[in-house]
């Protein structure tokens, strides 16, 4: 049974982790098609490629039934690559736009409006696919709003008493109002928004 690639969300990079680990060279980058392909004659369904895709675009079927199931899942997937490759709470920063240093923290806090600072560490980075896009956290907050990601210095950890990362520091018109600790995945978006709004209400 073959490996399947969900090309709706695959970025078709020839740096693909699945290609690098494939023991039979079944998975490879085709420069003519500008796409990652799988040679099903060579694929042994070992499954090594699957966990090496950061956006879970690889499926490995071991039976005909699994193959049909995954094929249907891919056909019904409404996501596009643009939906995935955006900066997200809890995930690795994609663009430099959101990343600030500890020294820049105070200057980035809006004097009028809401500033959200996601404090994260390498160890707290979660799957891109399962994390919440930043725009989906902020779109129900009225007024000026800014969002940044920060790997904290010891001073910041101590000042804001951060015990767990990611931790979302919330500032309202220049004043620190509270924080939400811990990771929230895409299924917990309502809970995260509720916590932010609860802090902003006081
Ligand atoms: S399942 Fe194994 S053999 Fe098949 S493409 Fe993935 S890594 Fe290669």
Instruction: Please give the CATH class of the largest domain.
Output: Alpha Beta
Reported for the largest beta sheet, the result is: 5 strands, mixed
Q: Which CATH-level-2 architecture of the largest domain? A: 3-Layer(aba) Sandwich
The share of residues in extended strands comes to 15-25%
Radius of gyration: 20 Å
Q: Structural class per helix/strand content?
A: alpha+beta
- Taking the alpha carbons of the first and last residues, their distance comes to 57 Å
Q: What does this molecule look like?
A:
By secondary structure, this protein is α+β, with helices and mostly antiparallel strands. The protein folds into two domains: 3-84, Alpha-Beta Plaits; 88-200, Glutaredoxin (3-Layer(aba) Sandwich). Helix content is 24%, strand content 22%. The protein contains seven helices and eleven strands. The chain has a five-stranded mixed beta sheet, with helices on one face. Strand 10 and strand 11 form a beta hairpin. The longest helix has 13 residues, at 64-76. The protein is elongated. The mean pLDDT is 91. The structure holds iron/sulfur cluster. Iron/sulfur cluster (SF4) binds at residues 3, 21-22, 24, 26-27, 38, 43-49, 60.
